[in-house]
Predict the structure.
Amino acid sequence: MMEETEKLKQKLPNQEFDYFKIGKIVISRWYWIVLSVIVCMIAANIYLWYTPKIFASEGTIKLEEKKSDLSDLVNVMGTEKGASKTQSEMFVLQSRNLILKAVRRLNYPISVYSEGSIRTVELYGDKHLNIKFIQFDSLNFYRPLITFKPVNHNTFNLTYLVGGREVKKAYSYNSPINIEGTIFSIVSLEGKYDKLLFKFNSIDELADRARGGLQINESIKNSGIIRLQQTDSHPRFAADFLNALMTEYLKYDLENKQLSATRIIGHIDKQVDSIAPSVRGLETEIGDFKESSQIMDVNASAQLEQSKAAEIETRRDALKLQLGSIEQFKKQVIAAEKDNVSLNSNIDGDATLNMLITNLNNLIADRTSLLGTYQPFSPIIKNIDSSIAKAKSDILQNVTLGMVNVQKKIEILNGQLAQANQKISTFPQAERKLVSLNRDFDIKQKAYTFLEEKKLDAQISRSAVLPGANIIEPAKVNPYQVSPNVSEIKQTGVVLGLLFGIGFIILIRVLNPFIYDKETVESLTTTPIIGVIRKFPQKLDENSSEILVLSQPKSVFAESVRSVRTNLSFLAAEKDQKVICVTSEVAGEGKSFVAVNLSSTLSLIDKKIILIAADLRRSKLHKTFHVPNDIGLSNFLANQNTIEEIIIPTNQSNLDFIPSGPVPPNPSELLHTDRMTFLIDVLKRTYDIIMIDTAPVGLVSDSIPLIRASDINVFVIRSGKSKFYAATIPQRISAEYNLNNSVIVLNAFEEDLLHSRFYTTKFSGDNPGHYYSDYTGYQGSGYYIEDEKKNWWDMRNWFK
């Protein structure tokens, strides 16, 4: 018996992944995705509306960079950029001291804002409010925002906070305003504004604002080209600050390079200041002596000796001056750590000394650059410190030798001067006195002239110094915002909308606990499916009082019931009379609905059918047939009525009905009695098919004896109502009671791609299955009453 069913239960059918179906699942809820995209785009636009715009301005500086031999050594050791000054110059550009100078150059003491409905915008650049300071302390001034509202051409209102309390006062233009010690006046309002906000700027706050948006990097490695970028909420402020920063950097660099010449000029000025009074005094003393002694000039011999002595003394004083400069140079070398060492113009340096000084300066620059990367105690810095100490020692040794040579020259000149003085001592006293005065004057005058010449040389040298960098590209106002990126935000909104829409579809599928299609049933159980009953497209009454197979015989629903009827006829084919038990897991899955419609369609093929309402607890089949439920199956099982008394003929030929009767106190026990078996045996004599509508097997055990006594057990699973667990119940019952006559009917099926399984069942020869159709895709074929023409513009069809 039931050999076909037994074969089908050998193994689960093979299912293949259907990629095309995945696309159909996503497209089936296209309006969810569209709605999600719309919501995300609205969120993106709201974000763009409320997020302050950030603008960027860029400038470029080219450095004139020098390298030493140590740079190559450091590069070999793997240090990026070696001794290049680029990193140190970038550090200087980002230093707070230079940024403060740039901010001061901007001269931006007052910020004015326009308050909009969404955000407040800074009005930088133009004078919207002409404010004049009367008393302003740069360290202690009023910092919070002040609200300005014009009243008329002469007066306005100011609103501000004092001690946490809001103060609102009326003022006149050009009248003094005192707010916590800050005294100012508003001269005029430029433009038409209903409301403005303003505040007094602190140099430190502006520096923090500028430093926070400043980015500096090298455009190309080892190129010495520095790219500066300033981001700010106002594009003009960003450009103005960058230009001020680059200008201040060039000024700083020029002053730093001119520092050596400036020091030389300062040293010469001190020496000139010490010599000038002596020159003026000697000039006066010579004039007074000539007047008092009545001597206008000396003779030729005395004049010759005077000139010789003056020349010797001038050379000696020049050497003494050089000796003092060497002493000062030695101190500069010993103290040199950060600043470059420069050779004083009074020192005659040979090529060796110049080379040693250049090497020391390069080593100092290398150390300053590497300190931006390494700690002072690191091995590389210690090696440079050793090299610097060695370079200083070499310079001091060279200079010491020079000092010895100068001292020897001074001793020689002292001897020559003594000889000249001895000859001068033989002249008359008046001439001797005048010669001495002239000689002193000539010495001082030549020294003075010599120093002035050296000072002029240093000034020329300082004037010829150029900055070590050039502005290749000044910053310009860039009106296009860099943040938030409008196109990127909107693209992100579209992508997130798509992801959220698809993610919501996936989430609904993952959280779905219900069975929707036959592929899902086939993946859960080996119990065969004999048919899929379509969902009736129209609304049903509460009691399903209308037998739809009869009322709508040309509907897809009626055809799907006929398909189940056909497959039922092949089950237990060897029996002339069949007992068919219809059950489900829980109430509401349509077992009674299926039983009624199967019974009615079976009666149309000249089969004598009787439908028994065996759900003794809450049967509603009597309402379908519009008959009372006062007498029924429970009365017969309780020996209260005969079989003839409980059978009720229906309006349809070949179909009779036994109602459930009053609810008994012991329904399960009644169904286990011999009278139920006797009833079935008696009915087999009259009817070809006995259709039994039982109680849900998942809720009560009433139906178990009927299931075991039936020839065919039809388990009803309702699409969208039955859970995954329901599909395993027929197989479990069959295994527990050793049954091989269970089949499944999927009820109330309608095509819903959202919950459909993305696998397609492939039946093989070992598991051919019953032929049935879910009638998906056949609408419009002209065979069914639902095939009316649908217009594409009818939006109601889009959501089906």
